[in-house]
Task: inverse folding
């Protein structure tokens, strides 16, 4: 509360001055009467001039028994007064007499509050510990007009400390005989140690003294990757007043990383966390054994997975060979079927040139597929820069007989994305399947028109293949469009393998495929690489 200015008070009318003074005294009495702190004020000579209700409850004296009659020295243990006077004489270089002067010497000399523990003696002779703050009361001229003592009963606190000391003593006796590190530490930033047994040197390479003298701490030894989970687990356990169980790494003095298993719990008194206690043991050998076992398990699983993938690849390539060779072989038959006894020499020459291209393409396909079967998985997935236009030209040559026989019109627009980084065998197979399907399922009502187009879609390339063929009822058959051996039209060569292989190849390379279609209007396939 701000202190009123003397000049302001003197200038007040007498009635207002008396009212203000009365209110100040009422406020002071209210504060002194409601606080739980024992407050005793004295005159400059030490005679008590105020003794609040809390002091009466604490000490058993009524205010009229002490005010204007005694000094606070009557509340003190006289041996403590004598001992303190001797200490102050030595400390201040002045002769301090035992008595009230002992209580005020420090605050009078330093002008600071003198705060220390004392033994108080009640009226009935009962003794207990208090924390007493003694300070001077000064006027505006900085002259001492009295002294103020404020005391807090710390008997319960002292009792708890004694219990803690007894518990710690028993703890130490037990800890010295346990094969592992037993600790008591503070819950501070470095988990500074209160107690450690000698086993810590075996565990860390550092002697007990280095931890107790803060030359080293466990925070400096923790593996950086484990610090967050250690702090989180300990904090969560403390909040829930539960034990914590951790496994983490520390660096031994030798530089070796060791695995530690720790179990700990908070130690509380009156709901206040005093410290953490726990047990540490070295589980490095166990961890190494577990890691070797896990590695062996992973190696076995990897080998099994590799065998499974190889079987799947063999199965897939068996389908590719079966499916991809049928078209060139069929093309050869289609080209030969175009000849008759009445065919001209020019007809034979044209068909022969087409047969040569088909034969060469067939040989290239066989070579590519056999090479693909020979190389390992990593090489199989090797990607090369491929031209969409050149790939389609090769596939058109493979199907030249069907293209000529059906009078199909094939158009392209690869200007937006002319090239792609992809597996050569897969891209040719995808083009072959989509083109052969468009020719196979053409509409008898109109000339087949097939359009190949590419688009750039952010960091992806999209291939769009559309035709004007028979189309597919997607509401009825959309869910099985890319299934194995699913067919949707009556056709003697339909085996339901092409779209299944195409989807498998696209997804194996990390892409996706879908389609839109309308019955008797055609189908459009979209592939995102």
Result:
């Amino acid at each position: 509360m701000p202190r009123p200015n003397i000049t302001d008070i003197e200038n007040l009318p007498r009635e207002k001055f008396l009212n203000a003074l009365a209110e100040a005294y009422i406020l002071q009495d209210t504060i002194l009467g409601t606080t739980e702190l024992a407050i005793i004020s004295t005159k400059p000579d030490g005679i008590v001039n105020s003794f609040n209700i809390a002091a009466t409850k604490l000490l058993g004296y009524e205010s009229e028994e002490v005010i204007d009659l005694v000094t606070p020295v009557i509340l003190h243990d006289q041996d403590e007064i004598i001992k303190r006077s001797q200490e102050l004489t030595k400390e201040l270089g002045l002769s301090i007499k035992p008595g009230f002067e002992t209580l005020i010497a420090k605050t009078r000399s330093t002008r600071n509050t003198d705060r220390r523990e004392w033994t108080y003696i009640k009226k009935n002779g009962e003794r207990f510990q208090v924390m007493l703050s003694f300070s001077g009361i000064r006027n505006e001229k900085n002259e001492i007009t009295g002294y103020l003592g404020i005391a807090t009963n710390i008997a319960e606190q002292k009792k708890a400390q004694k219990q803690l000391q007894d518990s710690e003593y028993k703890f130490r006796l037990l800890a010295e005989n346990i094969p592992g590190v037993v600790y008591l530490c503070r819950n501070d930033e470095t988990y500074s140690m209160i107690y450690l047994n000698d086993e810590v040197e075996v565990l860390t390479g550092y002697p007990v003294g280095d931890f107790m003298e803060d030359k080293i701490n466990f925070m400096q030894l923790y593996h950086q990757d484990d610090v967050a989970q250690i702090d989180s687990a300990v904090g969560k356990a403390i909040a829930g007043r539960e034990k914590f169980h951790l496994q983490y790494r520390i660096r031994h003095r030798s530089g070796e990383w060791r695995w530690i298993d720790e179990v700990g719990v908070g130690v509380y008194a009156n709901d206040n966390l005093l410290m953490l206690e726990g047990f540490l043991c070295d589980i490095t050998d166990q961890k190494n054994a577990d890691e070797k076992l896990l590695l062996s398990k992973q190696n076995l699983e990897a080998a099994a997975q590799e065998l499974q993938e190889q079987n799947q690849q063999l199965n897939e390539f068996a389908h590719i060979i079966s499916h991809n060779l049928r078209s060139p072989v069929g093309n050869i038959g289609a080209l030969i079927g175009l000849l008759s006894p009445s065919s001209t020499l020019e007809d034979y020459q044209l068909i022969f040139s087409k047969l040569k291209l088909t034969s060469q393409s067939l040989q290239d396909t066989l070579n590519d597929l056999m090479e693909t079967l020979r190389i390992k998985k990593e090489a199989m997935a090797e990607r090369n820069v491929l031209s969409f236009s050149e790939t389609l030209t090769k596939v058109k040559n493979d199907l030249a007989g069907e293209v000529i026989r059906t009078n199909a019109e094939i158009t392209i627009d690869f200007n937006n994305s002319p090239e792609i980084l992809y597996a050569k065998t897969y891209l040719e197979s995808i083009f072959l399947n989509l083109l052969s399907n468009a020719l196979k399922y053409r509409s008898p009502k109109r000339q087949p028109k097939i359009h190949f187009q590419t688009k750039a879609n952010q960091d992806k390339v999209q291939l769009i293949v559309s035709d004007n063929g028979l189309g597919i009822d997607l509401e009825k058959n959309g869910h099985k469009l890319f299934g194995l051996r699913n067919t949707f039209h009556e056709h003697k060569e339909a085996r339901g393998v092409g779209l299944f292989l195409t989807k498998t190849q696209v997804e194996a390379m990390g892409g996706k495929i879908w389609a839109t279609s309308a019955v008797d209007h055609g189908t459009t396939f979209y592939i995102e690489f």
